[in-house]
Amino acid sequence: LVFATAKYVEEKMGRSFTESPPIQLSEIYPDTDYQTPVIFVLSSGSDPTGSLIKFAEEMNYLSRLQSISLGQGQGPVAEKYISMAIKKGDWVCCMNCHLAISWMPALDKIVDEFSTGAVTVDEHF
Asked: HSE on the CB side for 39, CA within 13 Å?
């Protein structure tokens, strides 16, 4: 039904109404800070990793970008990456969060601590 609807909309209104525009991280970045993370809610088949890597290169941050694919037992590893990154101002990309639903409350708490001042966070994080 979803595909049929998309096809109908494309035929009647044009392809631009069924495709998401490519993400421009350079446009989003000024609105972010250590208290405002970027969260991508993706449809099947989309992957912003290439855009993130390209943006990190443009910002001279590629060597400071840590990525982790969440899943079985990876929550503590991600916590370690985040803990180190907040001190040094590095970036952390947690991918496949849907595979670590049980760890999401812990991630939520970590992000909340940024805004409460419970932890010291480098401004470039």
From this structure: 10
d(CA 103, CA 18): 33
- Alpha helices (H) in the chain, listed in sequence order: 2-13, 25-28, 49-58, 75-88, 104-116
Residue 6: alpha-carbon gap to chain centroid: 26
**HEC-encoded secondary structure of 67-99:** EEECCCCCHHHHHHHHHHHHHHCCEEEEECHHH
The model carries a pTM of 0.78
**Burial zone of 79 (CB within 10 Å; 0-12 exposed, 13-18 middle, 19+ buried):** middle
60-116 pLDDT, tens digit per residue, is 999 999 999 998 899 999 999 999 999 999 999 999 999 999 999 999 999 999 888
Residue 23 has pLDDT above 80, yes or no: no
